[in-house]
Amino acid sequence: MFVFLYCSVYSQELPPIIKYPPSVYGAGNQSWMISQDQKHSLFFANNEGLLEFNGTNWELYPSPNETIIRSVKVIDDKVYTGFYMNFGFWTRQPNGKLKYTSLSDSIKNKILDDEQFWNILKYDQWILFQSLNRIYIYDTKTKKFQIIAPKNGVVKSFRTNTSIYFQTMKEGLFEIESGKKVLISDNPILKNNTIVNIFSVDEGLLIQTQLSGFYKLIGDSLTKVHTEIDNELEASFVYSSQLLSDGSFALGTVSDGIFIISKEGKLKYHISQNKGLSNNTALSLFEDDDKNLWVGLDNGINCINLQSPIHSFTDDTGILGTVYASATHNGILYIGTNQGLFYKKYQSTEEFKFISGTKGQVWSLFTYDGTLFCGHDSGTFVIENNIAKKIFSASGTWKFETIASHSNLLMQGNYYGISILEKLNNQWGFRNKIIGFDYSSRYFEITKNLEIYVSHEYKGIFRLQLDNELTKVKTFFAYASPKKGKNASLIKFNNSIYYAYKGGIFKLNNATKQFEKDKLLSSVFEKDEYTSGKLIVDNSNRIWLFSKNYIHYFSASKLGSELKQNVIPIPASLTNSMLGFENITQLSKSDYLIGTTDGYYTLNIDDLSFKNYVVSIAAITTNKLNERIANESILEEGSFKSDENNITFNYTVPEYNKYINSEYQYLLEGFQDDWSEWSVKPAVNFKNLPPGNYTFKVRAKFANKVLENTATYSFTILKPWYLTNVAYFIYLLLALIVAYFINKAYRNYYHKQKEKLIEENNLLLEIKELENEQQLMKLRNEQLTQDVDSKNRELAVSTMSLNSKNELLAFIKEDLKKTSEDGDKNIKSVITTINKNITEDDSWNVFKEAFDNADKDFLKRIKQLHPLLTPNDLRLCAYLRLNLSSKEIAPLLNISVRSVEIKRYRLRKKMDLQHEQGLVEYILAV
User: pTM of the predicted model, to two decimals?
Assistant: First the structure.
């Protein structure tokens, strides 16, 4: 046990701070003055120009001469700015953009060389532009200028409720009356100390200086006004200040951030770079309509939500670490982290102090019977008078639970099972480990029947039945359903046990001892909202759940058994909590502490009420394919060409809350039937919209409340020229003309087709006639062929007959010759007669006549080809043309077969035929 406290951490809870670095807003590092218009848009006099922020989008308007804008002031519907050798105003154009008009150009010859305008003030109808040399007073009614030019220049100008003041170094404080300067005080303090701001008080003026703090000027009397931070102010060099709506003062310094003090001079907040501010040099301060404090820093812009119900403590040193548990006990706030256990007096700004001996991971803090228990990685501690006493060290301890009807016992879940603590002699100590269950018991609950339900992230849910002595497990049951899950948890709420994992939230049915899905609680994890199943029950019997975009808590209804749901629209990405180890502790009736990875934040649920903001369309842009974007008017209905049908709508709710984001829902009538899903995205793009009439509607939800108004914009996508009524009329005329010509062409075509058909019919008739003639000729040819064949047959028959006759006569002649040897004259006379009948000439003449009839001109053709042929040769050719053999030819020539062969040979010679060429084939081919 140790008493030594070896480290501490400064622990003031601060309002939320939203940081906007130059990389986010896209302009210069420094902003010299801030203002706000009636639509709640913010304007910053920035190194790069006029910077506008509407809560969603940043827009930079470079100064006309590309110099630093030093001052900005929204007056009515104009944004006045002052910069290098020029001042004027910006007005909103129909497309939502700003356009500059110079006022100083009309008195350009009166502007001093190298003059810059550092402040702008309004008083009634006059607007004052202050440089370090002079003050230019512009009358908005007469449009004329009046110039006040002090001899020693102007340090700074100020406006109170009823007057305009300015300071001149070494001369004092002056008031402008009737357009002239009037010395108010030449007190040496006011002559030698730079005045940062002047505020009206009942009896005079409250003057704040750069290095000497506050003074009160009543008449000629100047007295010091003391605050709690006088020493800090003297050392920090105050550069800017702002009177807040609650009477407090915000003071921006060059080297030590921002001090916020009450009107009594008490320090409320000191916000510097090591406490969340982006930079320690505050060049400008401004309180907006929502009472947020805007800070123009030397390197960025910050917004401090002074009225937020959420305050945060951020440990930039790393000493505290990630917060896993918290508790209040005996007026002390205890914070359990991965570095150990820390404490401080509740609701104080004193430092957190470390409790020695608790170095390491703290898992839980539990108060029971006037004792604070600490579940630690090394075991269990009892905390008494901020001193840690270890009472269990066998393993790490997750959590503690009371046991019904055993007020002197506590059950604790350990790394290796469950064990019992017992109070003896007013001292708590370890009694026994429950035998039969050795799994890690981070989440467990016990019933009146001594049943323990344990949730193990990697093994699922177990049900254990203990014996009456709480020493061992009698029965053991592992649930198959619901399944195990990452970041799952189990807790008792309203005397029922609930189990949560990605698949939903399940309630134990005490009768069946089975888990059944709870539809109301499970709805929290719908639409991919699940991040963690961690369930927490607070002292007011509310059950808390955490999802991707919300924190939920449910409480029992006063008039029924159903649960009442409440939603806090703070996303997990902003709360910066450890998933699966979310922790929330009820500090008072409505105050809660939520641990984060770098500290914690406190939340008052009764103060979670917000003004009714207005959603508006900030910009409308269109573009043609592959061309630049064009800004369209948002003040009147739009009419866009057919190729300008890619339209982007930007909309916004001008709120500047760090933890609560606006959500939007849109509908494009004429294109969509239903509203879109809620989304934090402040823009939507519609591509390739068809021609038609459309109405775009957008509504917003802030802090889970739908805003009253709906922003609308109507527009028309024109038809392309080729789909207009004129085009249709032209199309009709063209169609009629085309129809006329088509009809004419049709008629011409069919006329030609008719003529062509007649011609084709005539041609067919002619062809038919030709076919008939050809058929007739064919028949004739066939007849001629038949005639030729007949004559050839006749010729062959005649030739064969002659041949047969001659053979017969020759045969008779031979027989008679044999008989004539006896010398009978009568026989010789017969022989003579036979010789006369078988003469060649007679046979040839008959044959030639028949052959000429059958094969005209053959003998002429063969004679022409071979002029040397003799009549006998021609006769042989004729016989060969009839394809007669040598044996058949011999009787016709009245010679032997051998003689015929000799004649054939001689005939080949005369015809000069090649050896391989046949004589008959040649004669047949002639």
Answer: 0.75
